[in-house]
Amino acid sequence: MHILMTGGTGLIGRHLIPRLLLLGHQVSAVTRDVAAAREKLDARVALWSGLAQQQNLDGVDAVINLAGEPIADKRWTEQQKQLLCESRWQITERIASLINASAHPPRVLISGSATGYYGDTGDLVLTEEDSGQDEFTHQLCARWEQLALSAQSERTRVCLLRTGVVLASEGGALGKMKLPFRLGVGGPIGSGKQYLPWIHIDDMVNAILWLLDNDALSGPFNMVSPYAVRNEQFAATLGHVMHRPAFMRTPASAIRLMMGESAVLVLGGQHVLPKRLEAAGFGFRWYDLQEALQDVVGKPADKGAA
């Protein structure tokens, strides 16, 4: 297949592209910085400098849309919130428009979202059938998904990736979590009771490939391990795997002072289950958090994914 990707240089994209190439697919990546992307991606990946010049997506068999400004890197000022939204909404709207303008549209659009769709939902057990709390992360994801779904037709199915914390050897949320543990000041955040939905990068990539190949699947999918854990359990397990203490609890007040409104990303949580993936027959490799962390913590980065 000819697969068009956005977000190809991001955490998931860097691991997904080598697998797609290994399977014999032709991969094109949309990028704002061709020179930087060329340094990071396999030479076999064709680079598209944006989508402005495209009239349609004829000749593309599938689109995997993973683009978006990192949500936790900066405080949520009104300007930053607008950037977070526009970096997701604008390219998704453009992709949907190009698909709808195609005489022979891609057979599938796999488009990003996040477990933030559900908002801060405490101990409620959530599946894809549940609606979200009306807060910023839900508003961002709901509109993101709505724009992607506008590409859906009898000729194009749309799959939505409601992704949790992706565990990988480098980058992502885990990359930031490891530093305080290395310094001996790691531990639970706030009450520690909030659920943290997680998924190993291998399962994330395999699930995307599963959705790519199964023509009967569409709609939202929770991209998380079947076994969510509370923040305090995650901290204790990470400390154990890194052979570092994990008792330095960070007060919620300090997190709110540092992060402002975006503190909800770490003080809130969702107890999310991957009901639709499991019902479709997808088999997770990484169920156990300790085994998953042992696999990625200290593991050398995948050279083929750089």
From TrEMBL:
Pfam families in alphabetical order: DUF1731, Epimerase
Residue span, NAD-dependent epimerase/dehydratase domain: 3-215
Signal peptide start-end: none
DUF1731 domain location: 250-296
Top-level taxon of origin: Bacteria
CDD domains xrefs: SDR_a8 (cd05242)
Family that this chain belongs to: Belongs to the NAD(P)-dependent epimerase/dehydratase family. SDR39U1 subfamily.
Protein name stated in the entry: TIGR01777 family protein
